[in-house]
Amino acid sequence: MKKTLLSSFTLLAAGVLLAQLPVSTQQQKRKVLLEEFTGYTCQFCPDGHKKADQLVAGNPGNVFVINIHHGSYSTPASGKINFQTSFGGGLLNQSGLTGFPAGTINREVFPSYSMSSGSTAMSRSYWTSAANTVMNEDSYVNVALQATINSTTRELVVDVEVYYTGNSPQGTNKLNVALIQDGIMETQSGASTWYPEMMVGNLYTHNKVLRHLLTGQFGEAISPTTQGTKITKQYTYTLPAQLPLTVTGGALKSDVVLTKLKLIAFVAEGNQYVVSANSGPITINWPAGVADLSDEHALQVFPNPFNNNATFGLNLSQKENVNIKVYNIAGAEVFTYNENLNPGLHQINFDGSNLQEGMYIVKAVIGNKVKTEKITLVK
In what helix (H) or strand (E) does residue 94 lie, and over which residues does it extend? Predict the structure, then answer.
């Protein structure tokens, strides 16, 4: 596929669940930002990951998760990936957590759920209740974003729009843009017990890992914050080949894989209380002729993880025979699709309502090209 076809499909897939520009000027309900504090040696953290995935799958387009690796359970060790960032300490300290896994919902204090008096941190058993409260409330601000990556220079350009449908109680708000990454493979304590679906051999699939905050520790100040105000911002960041930039004690860096990156933007009244959040599509601009079916964006599965129903998205440059099969981890075929499709954009529904939750393998044969993808069903 040529670069232009790849780019147009990226916007289609993201547009189903993600907020690309322009920002909506209609009042919306608040969207949820779950900041999950975790670590690869934390025994119960995989259960937190699973509960977060279930929350996302049950509320597509309304819940966004950032996994923050900091604290004793993520201490870098020789031969292990260092997941920590320079931002993790500040986020952890203001949460008031007293144990792991922990999470904050929109950095808001829920007294009945707080780990300690006045803290925003709560245990995983309360995340869904707090999230439901947030999603039932009106938001006075909307946020939308979209981005491009030049695959040659690795320059990420993010365009963000904020629109105030009402007045903020604060004259200045904070706009934050977080870069996260899926699919980093490393060990994880408790994974085989609490989330075995994410295991590949002896390794665990670490998703939603915080990689960078483009707007700094607690965001960029924006104003005015009155009804009818629209604010536009653009951020650029040259993506390193690996992160963190430096490691010590024999700890390892991990690759920054362009096709595994996601962006989350959110508006806060200060360093705490997040009014609303959103995610947006990333279009990767490849050199002409590079982006064929071997690239991940030629076959997209969304949402992933999913709850009962997922969509397989394809963008064909010519008429092709499309054969898609889904297998469970035991190798049994649970779904098949075989059609001759015309050029253009196609969406194929996958109904997993009668399947057990867990990891599945999607194998797509399109013409003479083959693509496989892991998907996770959560219920």
Answer: helix 88-95
Domain 291-377 in CATH 3.55.10.10? The answer is no
pLDDT at 346: 84
Q: What percent of the chain has pLDDT over 70?
A: 92
Identify the residue whose tokens are 């599965």.
Answer: 301
Nearest-angstrom CA–CA distance, 54 and 326: 21
Looking at domain 19-280, which CATH architecture does it have? Sandwich (2.60)
- The sheet carrying 184-186 orders its strands as 184-186, 203-206, 199-200
Instruction: Check: CB of residue 149 under 8 Å from CB of residue 239.
Output: yes
Tokens 């670590």 locate to: 39
User: Model confidence over 245-276: pLDDT tens digits?
Assistant: 999 999 999 999 888 999 999 999 999 999 99
Instruction: Give me the residue spans of the domains in the chain.
Output: 19-280, 291-377
105-134 pLDDT, tens digit each: 999 999 999 999 999 999 999 999 999 999
Closest by CA position to 222, among listed 270, 185, 182 = 270
Global pTM reads 0.78
Neighbours of 253 (CB within 10 A): 15
